[in-house]
Amino acid sequence: MSEKIEYQLEFPVKSSPKILYNFIATPSGLSEWFADNVNSRGSKFTFIWDGSEEVAELITKKAGSHIKFKWEEEDDGTFFEFRIRIDELTKDAALIITDFAEEDEMDEARMLWESQVSELLSVIGG
Questions:
Q1: What is the pLDDT of residue 73?
Q2: In this predicted model, what pLDDT tens digit does every residue of 47-80 receive, in sequence order?
Q3: Separation CA 49–CA 8 (nearest Å)
Q4: In which domain, by residue range, is 116 found?
Q5: Given CB 3.0 to 4.6 Å as the disulfide criterion, which of 96, 111, 112, 119 pairs with 83?
Q6: How many angstroms separate the CA atoms of 56 and 43, rounded?
């Protein structure tokens, strides 16, 4: 098994940070674009795609700023994080996604995020 590499993607979002945060940090918001359904119990989030379930643990979150998860079955220090960055000058919002992928899966991982975020942008109109 090869080692996973951390990467970041940045997407401009024409939405208020408060609205964007609700879409990245709540089960109902995540269900709109990230998974078919999302349930949470405490710090455990269950993501459901086409009848298959993946469980992630909430590692950290700061209201209006970021949320970080770790997939339950991963024990290699990897995580995925959604972070909102506001440009001080223009006040434009950007969604920063940090994730990990093996080198030979990097292009596929990036395309998957681009597709997911495209869905998010169409849902929030941003």
A1: 85
A2: 999 989 999 999 999 999 999 999 998 888 899 9
A3: 23
A4: 4-124
A5: 96
A6: 8
Residue position matching structure tokens 């940070």 = 17
- Count up the domains in the chain and report the number: 1
Contacts 24+ apart (CB under 8 A), 21-29: 21/63, 21/64, 21/65, 21/84, 23/120, 23/123, 23/124, 24/67, 24/82, 24/84, 24/95, 25/61, 25/63, 25/67, 25/82
Residue in the block written with tokens 């001080």: 88
Alpha-carbon distance of 13 to 22, in angstroms, equals 13
Burial degree of 32 (CB within 10 A; 0-12, 13-18, 19+): middle
Check: pTM over 0.85? Answer yes or no.
Answer: yes
Q: Say what the alpha-carbon torsion angle 44, 94, 20, 123 is, to the nearest 10 degrees.
A: -100
CATH number at 78 reads: 3.30.530.20
Q: Which tens digits make up the pLDDT trace of 12-30?
A: 999 899 999 999 999 999 9
- How many C-beta atoms surround the C-beta of residue 118 within 10 A? 12
Q: Give the separation between CA 32 and CA 11, rounded to whole angstroms.
A: 18
